[in-house]
Structure formats: C-alpha cells, structure tokens
Amino acid sequence: MMLLDQKQAGFADAFRALVEGRREETADVRAVVAEIIAAVRAEGDAAVLRFTERFDRLKLAAGGLRFSAQELAAARAACSPAALDALGLAAERIRAFHERQLPQDDAYVDARGVTLGLRWRPIDAVGLYVPGGTAAYPSSVLMNAIPARVAGVQRLVMVVPTPDGAVNPLVLAAAGIAGVDEIYRIGGAQAVAALAYGTAAIAPVDKIVGPGNAYVAEAKRQVFGRVGIDMIAGPSEVVVVAEPVADPAWIAADLLSQAEHDEKAQAILITDDRIFAERVAAAVEAQLAALERGSIARASWQAHGAIIVVNRLDEADRLVDALAPEHLELIGPRAEALAATIRHAGAIFMGAFTPEVIGDYVGGPNHVLPTSRTARFASGLAVYDFLKRTTLLGCDPASFRALAPAAAVLARAEGLEAHALAVERRLGGEG
Amino acid sequence: MMLLDQKQAGFADAFRALVEGRREETADVRAVVAEIIAAVRAEGDAAVLRFTERFDRLKLAAGGLRFSAQELAAARAACSPAALDALGLAAERIRAFHERQLPQDDAYVDARGVTLGLRWRPIDAVGLYVPGGTAAYPSSVLMNAIPARVAGVQRLVMVVPTPDGAVNPLVLAAAGIAGVDEIYRIGGAQAVAALAYGTAAIAPVDKIVGPGNAYVAEAKRQVFGRVGIDMIAGPSEVVVVAEPVADPAWIAADLLSQAEHDEKAQAILITDDRIFAERVAAAVEAQLAALERGSIARASWQAHGAIIVVNRLDEADRLVDALAPEHLELIGPRAEALAATIRHAGAIFMGAFTPEVIGDYVGGPNHVLPTSRTARFASGLAVYDFLKRTTLLGCDPASFRALAPAAAVLARAEGLEAHALAVERRLGGEG
C-alpha cells in the first residue's frame, strides 16, 4: 500500500504515478485466437467440439452443446431457496432501474416543413459470455441479461464453459430468472467465434457482451465489426472518499472487498485526516489476516492499494476525476457536494450505509462498469447498449426546394458532382 | 451491376451472396502503425514533426503545428460566400436536430427508500480526425464537431494533414462554424498518437472520432482503451426501395451519388417492376458517361451495384433488414408502411424529394452512419457519443438493512467472503 500525504514533498509526482500506473496484462494471444476463429468459421460445430474437448476436457456431440430444459430445471432445484430469493430480489431491482432507461422515439416537423425523426430499436440477437470456473458469477448473468431483455432483444443466447463438465447451478438459475433463451456449454475463443459466425447448432448473434479471460477478450476484439461487442474490461477498482466520521473497520472492509477480486484490483482511500488514514490501514491489516481470499487481497493491497491524505476534502474532486474510478464511495458530510462536482466515475455510492457490495448485487444500477480510467469516456452497461438508432428525414417538394441549393453548393465544393446532380435533377435543372 | 429477379431460380443464393459479400480491404498496417505510435509516445513532438516531414512532405517546427487565428481568418476569407452560407444553414440544422437528443438525468427514491440516479456528463476533451487531400469534406467536420459541442465537450481539437502544405479553406471555415477550439496540421497514425498520448504542443484528449485511411483506422484501434474511439467506417452504401411512380433518372442519380464515393461503395435498387428496373439501369448507363467521377462510379456500379426485382414490395422489409444498409431511400405509396416495419438501417430518407444527398449536407440528422451491415447493432454518430453516464446509489440505515441480507447471501454464494463481510459488519454481525 502506498501512503500519499499532500503535505509531503513529491505528492504531485506520486499521485501522477498512481494515475498512470497500468495494471493490465498484455499476453499476446492474438495468433492462437485467430487460428481458433478460422477453424470455427471453416468447420463449424466440429471445431467447437474439438476445442471444447481440448480446453475443457469435455467430449460432447453437437446435440449436447445446448443445456436441455430438464438440465436447467435440475440446476434450479439444486440451488438453495435463500440464494434463489436473493437472485429474485436482485433481478427485480435491476429490471426496475433499467426500465427507466428506455428512451423515447422523436418525430417532428420543423419550421421549414421537413419531417424529422430518431427512433430506437432493439438489436435482434445478443450473445452473453459467462466465465466458468471460479469466476462464475450469477450476479453478472443478471447484470448482462436483464438490460438486454428490457431493451426488447428477441433472442438472448448464453455461453458458459463447463471444465470437466462442472457447472455452477446458480449461474444457470440466474439465466432462467433473467430470461435467457438458449444456453450452450462452451467457452473460450471458440464460443465467441460460434456466436459471431454461427454453426449448424448455434445461430449467429449481432452483439456479444460479457467478461472473459485474455482469450475471450482477444476473440471479441477480432470479431468486432462482424458483430458488436461491449467494452473490454480491465481489473476492477474502487476509490473511497471518507471523512473521519466513518468506522475505520467499515472502510477497510470496503477496500478489501475490492482487493479480493484479483491481484491486479485496486483499492484507494482518500481522506483529510492522517490519524483516520492510519486507523483504516491498521484495520485492513487486521482483517486481511482472517480472509479466505486473503492472499489475493493482500497482493492487490500491497501492489496497488493507496491511501491519500489531502489537505482539504473539498479538493478531492480533482483527484477523483484524475483517477476516473470504476466505483466511488463518498462517505461523510461533504459527500453530496463532492458528488455534484465529480465528473468521472462509473458508479457513485453515497454514504456509510451504501458499501459498493450493495451495488454489486441488489442496488439496481449495473455492476458492469468502465475500468482503468475509461470512465473519462465510457459508461456502465445499460439498456442503450442493446438498442440502436435510425434517423428519419422527409422533404416535400417545398422543403426540398428550400434546402436543395445549399446541398448542391456543398456537393460541388467537395468535388462530388453526382451528389449535386441528384438534387439538381429534382430542381429541374438537369431533369 | 447484378440483376436479381425473385421470379428466377437461384434468387435466394444470389441474395445471400450479396449480403455476405465483403468490401473491406484488410491491408495489414499493424506493425507500421505500432512503430509510429511508439515513436510519438517516446519522443513527442519530435516524432510528430519527423513523420509529418516524411509523409506530408512538410517541414514544421513544434510552434507551427497549430493553425493560428490569422491563418483561420484568412482561410475563411478565401471561401465563397455561397459556400459559407450553405455551411451556416447546414450547421444550424445539424445543431437543431442534435440538441433534441440531450438526455435527461434521472433521480428518484424507490419504494424501499433507496435513492437512485443516472446522470449524463460530457467527455472533457475530444479529438476530431479530418482527412486531407481529396477526401477533405467540410460537411464531415460539421457532422462530427457539432454533436460534441452540443454535448458540452469543453475542448474540441481537430487534426487535418496538409500534404505539401495544401489545405482546403472550407474545411477550416467549417471548423470555425462548428466551434472547434484547436486545429493542428498533422495527420496519419502520428496525429492519432499525439491526440491519445499528448505531446508538449498538443494536450491529450479522451476520445477520438472521425474517418481516415487504413493507417488512421488501425491507429484508432491501437489506442482504443487509452481513449475512446468511434466506429471504424467501411465503404459507404445505399439501398433505394422505389415503386415505378418515381422518375428513373432521379433514382439513377441517387445510386450514382453513392457510387461516386469510392470503387468499393455499393448502390442497390429494390423494386417490384422489371420494366422500371431496366429503365433505371439504362439511366445509370446514360448518366455515367458524363460524370466527372465516372470511372470511380462505374467501377463501384459494375462490381458492387445491384438491382433486385421482388414479387411483392411489401416483402422488401425482409431484404432490407438482411442488408442493414447505411442509407435507405423509400420512394412510393408503400414507403410509410415499409418504414414502420424495417428494423435495421442507419438513416431512412422518405419520398422522392428526399435524396440521400439532402441528408449528407443539410437535413439535420448525422451523416456519420454504420456501414457494412453494422446497422444491425450500431448507430449513427449522435450527442450520446460525447456523453457518458454515472449511476448513483444511496441507502439509509433502514433501506440498507432491507437489502443487505440478500447481498451477503449472493456474495457468499460467489465465494467472495470480503464482499459479504462489508455488509455484515454494517449489520453488526462482525462490527
């Protein structure tokens, strides 16, 4: 953990190093992924089955790629009622929050008599990648699938690898709660290729979303253009801005809930009280000792954690905007004022009783958020990601004549004679 | 030009070939671009100046990278009043259409007492790439810059290469009309790198938009993640669905206005009348003979043009959705009904007096649109591309207690103990 105190020399440089520090791995898996995609395009299901046997140690027939209704019912029956109830509450709250995002179409006639419009339509078919193994998160299934369903996507397809045949029943139950239409037990670049290009068993989709390892991320990059993709997610991060009114143990717990994700995760506390900072640091050490995922959390906290002591908390907004964090907790009397001036954050959690974890599961807003300072230009997943827009334009003869001369002048200025002629013929000049 | 008649055998296969036919070039410029970006990151302005001398045959000093106010005033003075007036009309109409897109923030307290919100904020700084040479289109400057300005972007930076020092004054005038803040006479991958990473002379931006050649497109791909980028545009296309009420010469002119862009451009007519189809084909041939850009238009029409004769125009919506065209003209009595059912098109132009060219310049909607069937999942440029969202969540002790148990159950189900502890400590279980 790095302690930065604004009162000490070198603060600006140390803070800049923290902002510029990159945490991504850049394993070069490009060639391997390109080969897998080419094989799936050429051979279809045969290639998908071969890679699934090789990477997941699972021998399937094409007819066995898809989970059956019976398998899904059995998975749900294997889940605890408490977990299913919790997923139900989460789904209800996520749906309610995202339904408010549905945009209105626009249609109007302007003062020159031109008919104008902008309308939103859902993407036809969406593929959702869900990681298998330890990173199989039912909450992520809800967060990715529900906004698609709210947008009106007709066909929602999920892929999830099942190494050695193992699958998390709660992941399948979450897919059922979210209304996923088809689920295939495949993963990796081969699953992304199957979704993008289609096989005999799996019809192609128009967009692929969801997190994955370096192979999945690279496969999404390579099929981008053929289909749409969501952001490529980097390691997760939280910034907590807390005044000394908060319980240091709570703040430490919030920092550690971020740090336990991944050794590359980053947890940062910003406060204006040095004593409080030291109490939080001590609480982190105390809690680390007993954590199940303590070795991951400790590695993250040691390498990427930071506590920043500022002279005046009012100025924390500048630091937060420079960090542009994925998650931002604001705790203390100045929280409201800071929330109003901060420009760059994926999601803001207000007050001591809103730990990020509430938002990870049952808050309602999406937990798929822009990482690694991309909140400067990117947003969390939303209904908008599953809609696309079409604009409409209509001129009658009178409004056409009002606009046509300017269009012809600009077309000729750009050296596009055929453009000019398309309007001039209608003006009668060259009909 | 390919003539497909639904009455003839093999129609389905021929149509599928048309839909699947790819027109992109895939020049592999990856390594060259990676070198240029690395050099700009390492050496800053020195590398930018060196590449500008090499590729644009232009020797500059760092102080001369930016156009001065005097140069911009002189450029504007060199433009014809008619062209400036036309740009002014275009800018006014683009601004009016895009201002209606500004979304509303959301903020509410739900039935459980949880405070929720979603707010939109502009991206701080945006870079706009403008191609030099023959593809220097002042209309594109307006279409890219005005939505950014409407969104509230604080700093709007333009780069435009000036090979041998040559610049199109109308491009600079358009930048002035659109409110661009800084203009640099650089292009290629070096300009993209300078915008993404910054140099001593050019502060970095958060997102880069605008069209460019294969080097520029690849550079945008490589800096993606460090900054945001817009879609990578492919060759342009139009689909015209016309009933025989229309003047064949007008339809031919519209097809050719698309074909003159680029030998890889694509113009397609769909009609239900074989005689009309042949009249349009003849009109295309007649008009081609006299066009300034006739050789480009002819190459496009021969290689990629198509006329599709369908049995019933009511079914054209299926064909259009399969093509998912960038531009779609609907002409004839069935236009309204077709517009209502078509799902995938970047922009629709309604009626015989709305040639696409009106929309290219002065209609109001954006002319930066999804190409190559990406309208299935992508949208034209809009104010949304220059905004990003932050969600807000706030619980008081009562609403926290209502949600916390479900969050803890899900955290433990996902094996994330520190997540569970962050809520359980606040519930008093482990405080």
Automatic annotation (TrEMBL), chains A, B:
Signal peptide residue numbers: none
Assigned EC number: 1.1.1.23
Record field: catalytic activity: L-histidinol + 2 NAD(+) + H2O = L-histidine + 2 NADH + 3 H(+)
Annotated residues for binding of Zn(2+): 258, 261, 360, 419
Cofactor: Zn(2+)
Amino-acid positions noted as binding NAD(+) in the UniProt annotation, renumbered to this chain: 129, 190, 213
Cofactor note: Binds 1 zinc ion per subunit.
Keywords in alphabetical order: Amino-acid biosynthesis, Histidine biosynthesis, Metal-binding, NAD, Oxidoreductase, Zinc
Stated name of the protein: Histidinol dehydrogenase
Taxon lineage: Bacteria, Pseudomonadati, Pseudomonadota, Alphaproteobacteria, Geminicoccales
Gene field: hisD
